[in-house]
Amino acid sequence: MNHNLVSMFVTPNRMTVGALVALFYSGMAPAVVFGSETPPGSTLLSILPTASSNYQRPGDWAPYRPAVHLTPAKHWMNDPQRPILIDGIWHYYYLYNADYPEGNGTEWYHATSVDLVHWQDHGVAIDKYKNGLGDIETGSAVIDINNTAGFGPGAIIAIMTQQHEGVQRQSLFVSTDGGYRFKAYHGNPVMDNPGADHWRDPKIIWDDAHNEWLMVLAEGHKIGFYTSPDLKHWTYQSGFDRDDLGILECPDLFRMSVDGDPATTRWVLATGANGFNTGMTTGTLYWIGDWDGERFTADRDEPQWLDAGADFYAAVTWDDPRHNAAERLASRYAIGWLNNWAYATKLPTDDWHGGANSIVRRIGLRSIDGKPQLVSQPVNAFDKLEGDAVVRANVQLTEASKMTLPQPTSDAYRLRIELDAASDAREVHFRLKESNEHFAIVGYNFANDTVFVRRDRDAIADAMPEVYREVRKSPALAREGVVTLDIIVDTASIEVFVNNGEVVLSNLVFGVPGINDLSVESIGGNTELRLFELSPLKVTPITRNNGDGR
């Protein structure tokens, strides 16, 4: 670390900028210079609070094991399965392959949490290849409060795709022990394949307005809608067809209020898809529209993206049943698979494979520039991971002078930035995970109001497919003259939330292990940082069912 200090701002637990405390270090009291301009070629290097073990991953962890993201101890993970709440505990499942890479097939792995930030795993909840119908793939679990299926009030019913010899069918499994283990229904499959090549990923909700279960199913270039009185017998209602988005997967359907007004609600149809026609990669997109009990009608033909990054796929959303009806309509949670099938098997992780889960987000439906749009922000409990912050305000970045920023001393950190939209620069580049020639960039283009993430210079880019090296970007207009960036950085990922979640870009990023340097560069003019705030994040070790805390 460069000890040629300029100034330092420390705000315990995100104290306001005005409440500044100058700390002493080795007998020196660095000068506190609030709102000063920084001369060209100088640095913003500052002494950060000494990182304790709470902010450092244990020394025996693998180099890229995330500090604040959920991963299995070993083997393979992919699609998230929607969590359910039982006695104040979230029960979450994800696809898992203990035979990777030699053997195929997934099963449902079980993890629990009380805050959607700290996790405990419990092993496999639904085993593959046990009932003659194949492996256990994506689906959804519901609590059958009214005993519609006849397994008892409160039974947990999971319906998912099983695939045998290339044929996809939907099967039902039941748990009567609180979601820890499931048994196959003797009448499986509850939905037999009608002859379709792609027929998978059922997502089920209770439709209050029509007093029945409602399922959305991915059927190649179509999303099918089905209804049922008992979770066993399903009737096809209609289909939503798209031939321009690749093979659709992992659909979702839910109702939300606009701007929190329960008198104004809309339905959201989401799906995993491929945006190759619009310069995007695979991801999660959605339409706003109406559901009348038989058919979904979209307001607009063009979908919107829940996340504009390269690595937010197979997303699921859910609400909190502890909230009242208005609150449940106003806010939901979301989590996605932090990976991309274009390179999912090529990542440089040895002790586990398949990337990670994103952090859990809160989503809402807000009116933005005259139309409803989903916005996403880190779940509230995530804020509690933050340690003492280093803050600078009104920092002037001059053209073509790279500036070293306060350096992270933790394995994961949160970076909040406010850019003055009136800056005359063409672009500003924040270099993260910087190590000589290797780094990733989170940037903003003032000329075309676009936020972007580049990882073509990270430590693994040269060995990855071209799609990995492509720039991921999205329009992001300034709000009241400011562009805000809320950046969550972990050992192998960067998640960027722009303007209070109007835009999100989630990307895997692999730097040189152990290197976490940070700098900024103004391109084609000067940039004003109205605010720079760097907070370490506490490590959230997963409590393993085998005692392995990794």
Briefly say what this structure is.
By secondary structure, the protein is mostly beta strands. It contains 2 helices and 36 strands. A hairpin with a 6-residue loop joins strand 4 and strand 5.
Q: How would you portray this structure in words?
A:
- Helices cover 2% and strands 46% of the residues.
- It is globular and about 70 Å long.
- The two termini are 29 Å apart.
- The N terminus is likely disordered.
Overall geometry: globular
**Largest sheet report:** 7 strands, antiparallel
Strand content: over 45%
What's the total count of β strands? Answer: 36
The residue fraction in helices comes out at under 10%
Low-pLDDT stretches are: 1-51
What class would the helix/strand composition place it in?
mainly beta
Mean pLDDT: 91
Q: How far from one another are the termini?
A: 29 Å
Strands of the widest sheet, in order across it, are 1-25-36-27-32-33-34
Q: Measured on Cα atoms, how large is the radius of gyration?
A: 24 Å
Number of helices: 2
Helices, strands, pairings?
Layout: E1 10-11, E2 75-86, E3 89-97, E4 107-113, E5 120-126, E6 135-144, E7 155-164, E8 167-175, E9 183-184, E10 200-207, E11 212-218, E12 222-228, E13 235-241, E14 249-258, E15 261-274, E16 282-291, E17 296-298, E18 304-305, E19 313-318, H1 325-330, E20 332-338, E21 352-353, E22 356-357, E23 361-368, E24 371-378, E25 389-397, E26 403-404, E27 413-420, E28 427-435, E29 438-445, E30 450-454, H2 466-469, E31 472-475, E32 482-490, E33 493-498, E34 503-508, E35 517-523, E36 527-536
Parallel strand pairs: 2-21
Antiparallel strand pairs: 1-25, 2-3, 3-4, 4-5, 6-7, 7-8, 8-9, 10-11, 11-12, 12-13, 14-15, 15-16, 16-17, 16-18, 19-20, 20-22, 20-23, 23-24, 25-36, 26-35, 27-32, 27-36, 28-29, 28-35, 29-30, 30-31, 32-33, 33-34
